[in-house]
Specification:
147 residues, alpha/beta, Rossmann fold, five-stranded parallel β-sheet, 5 helices, 41% helix
Length: 147
Amino acid sequence: MRSGSEAVEILLVEDNPGDARLAVEALKEGGGNRCRLHVVQDGVEAMSFLRRQGDHGKAPRPHLVLLDLNLPRMDGREVLAEVKADPDLKRIPIVVLTTSQAEQDVVSCYELNANCFITKPVDLDQFIAVVRTIEGFWCQTVKLPPR
C-alpha cells in the first residue's frame, strides 16, 4: 500500500517521441505531484526497467505501466506476456495505450491479462484528455497493489 503522499510511479513504454512528450506534459499539468513518469522507448528497455537491470539498476518499481503495442525490438504483446508470466511483476497493472483499433489486438491483450485497452485519439486535445483520465483513475481513484 502506498502512503497518501507517495507519488504513483508510472512507466510509459512509447517509441513515438511526440506521444511521449504529450503524455509527460499532460501528466505534469493534471497530476502535479501525484504521478512520476518514467519513459522507455522499446520493449527490451521496458523489461530492463521492470527487472532493474543494466542502466535501470536503481529504477523504482512502477505502480502502473502504460504500454504501446507497436514497439521496436520487443513489441508490446511480448512485454505484456512476459510481465504477466513473471511472479514478481504480474501484479503491476498494465494499460495498453495504442493506435490500434483492431479487435484482434483488443482480444489478445485481454487474453494476456491487460488491465485495460485504450486506443490513442489522433486529436491532440482528446489525447491529452485521455492521459488525464488515466491519471485521474489510476493515480487518484483506485487502490493499487503494493510494489
